[in-house]
Design goal:
Layout (H helix, E strand, L loop, with lengths): L2 H4 L7 H10 L17 H11 L6 H13 L10 E15 L4 E16 L4 E7 L6 E10 L4 E9 L4 H4 L12 H5 L3 E11 L2 E8 L12 E11 L16 E12 L5 E12 L2 E10 L23 E10 L3 E9 L12 E12 L3 E11 L13 E12 L1
Antiparallel strand pairs: 1-2, 1-16, 2-3, 3-4, 4-5, 5-6, 6-7, 7-8, 8-9, 9-10, 10-11, 11-12, 12-13, 13-14, 14-15, 15-16
Length: about 400
């Protein structure tokens, strides 16, 4: 067994143990990030008093602290921080074509994030299915002022629409390509930033069976902040503070594990005062396929296609109401089935406490494509209504 086969595919069993071992040290952080001693000094004094006829004087305790500092046990030079936070969203929906309606719990996530002397970490569990499913589990350590190394389970650094936190989305659903590239995978990543330029290089397991295939999926992503400051970490123009921000990015992904499929992406994100515009264009190579689905699956036609999307929004009332419009073109006319799928979605958001607490109303008009068994490929149209509420803690 080689080191190469161990690094990107090693199970994350060591990660929780490492975190627990570090967090259980003498300066365990509270969820609010305030450091507390492993044992309250008052309780220690009381315990000593119970075991002795007379507790040591206060000067004795101070002298003991000084001795420990001399041994560099207490003076660790940093304060570990940890925070538990989370969010969830429920959506009431109605689909006209199938005349179906209901309420869904889209996500219910609990996150543990924190800072150590040598690294940052994150563990995320989603409870929406009724049982805890691990989403993120990674450690990220700085190798210098501008470079970081991340290892564990994390999102593939490909599209911004896939990387944005689910709580911070402009619509109830990501762009079509954002959905594909919001998946997590185990692996390792180098990333960095130099001025306005950011980059990432990741090697992850890909779609292959990690126990039988030593090949990996490689992703390279770059972006640059052309105008203004750093791009907002959420979608839309909420809390833009009247500034102009323009970020342009490119990405390349090669999955060697199954189909040898490659994908290339170009995207741009503009925020100008109350308005935002987001555009993304992808091209999937002819060999690209989704190994987890059957080749004939009608929803999976990415080989030799160039899907794109355009999203715009406007803050009607700063920090309260935002309207948005998105166009998604699947570009699957050249696919095995002559589909012409495309979606137009209108949305309006009411922010109560920013993205932490908000209401979202979406109306999606979907052109679903034709019947592959028929000579007529102009399929049915559908309208889907959704009302979602997001809450955070």
């Amino acid at each position: 067994m080689t080191l190469k086969s161990l690094l990107p595919r090693a199970p994350l069993l060591a990660l929780p143990a490492l975190l627990c071992g570090v967090l259980s040290g003498p300066a365990l952080a509270t969820p609010q990030g305030d450091a507390t001693a492993a044992q309250d000094p008052k309780e220690s004094a009381e315990g000593a008093a119970q075991g002795n006829d007379e507790a040591p004087a206060l000067d004795d305790w101070e002298a003991l602290d000084e001795e420990l500092r001399g041994l560099r046990i207490l003076d660790v030079g940093y304060t570990p921080r940890a925070q538990v936070w989370g969010y969830g969203r429920a959506t009431a929906y109605y689909e006209k074509l199938g005349d179906t309606q209901g309420v869904s719990v889209d996500y219910a996530r609990v996150n543990l994030t924190g800072e150590l002397k040598f690294a940052n970490y994150r563990i995320t569990a989603d409870l929406a299915s009724g049982s805890a499913q691990i989403q993120d589990a990674w450690l990220s350590s700085r190798l210098g002022k501008e470079v970081s190394f991340t290892m564990g389970q994390f999102k593939t650094p490909f599209l911004r629409s896939g990387l944005v936190e689910a709580r911070d989305l402009l619509f109830l659903v990501r762009t079509r390509n954002g959905v594909f590239y919001s998946r997590r995978d185990r692996g390792a990543m180098l990333s960095g930033q130099h001025g306005r330029f950011q980059w990432a290089l990741a090697m992850q397991n890909g779609y292959a069976d990690e126990n039988t295939d030593n090949r990996t999926m490689t992703t390279i992503q770059t972006s640059i902040d052309v105008l203004g400051g750093t791009a907002l970490s959420w979608e839309g123009a909420y809390a833009s503070d009247g500034k102009t921000r323009l970020a342009v990015g490119t990405a390349y992904s090669q999955d060697h594990t199954k189909s040898e499929g490659a994908a290339v992406a170009v995207e741009a994100n503009l925020v100008h005062k109350r308005m935002s515009v987001q555009a993304e264009y992808l091209h999937y190579g002819a060999a690209y396929s989704h190994p987890e689905l059957q080749p004939s699956d009608l929803l999976e036609q990415r080989g030799s296609t160039s899907p794109w999307s355009l999203t715009t929004s406007y803050m009607l009332v700063p920090r309260k109401y935002e309207v948005a419009l998105r166009y998604d073109d699947f570009d699957d006319r050249r696919a095995p089935y002559n589909y012409q799928r495309r979606n137009i979605t209108f949305g309006i958001n009411r922010y109560i406490e920013g993205h932490d607490i908000k209401w979202q109303l979406n109306v999606a008009y979907a052109h679903k494509g034709g019947d592959p068994t028929s000579a007529v490929h102009d399929g049915p149209h559908d309208v889907v209504y959704g009302l979602g509420v997001t809450t955070s803690f």
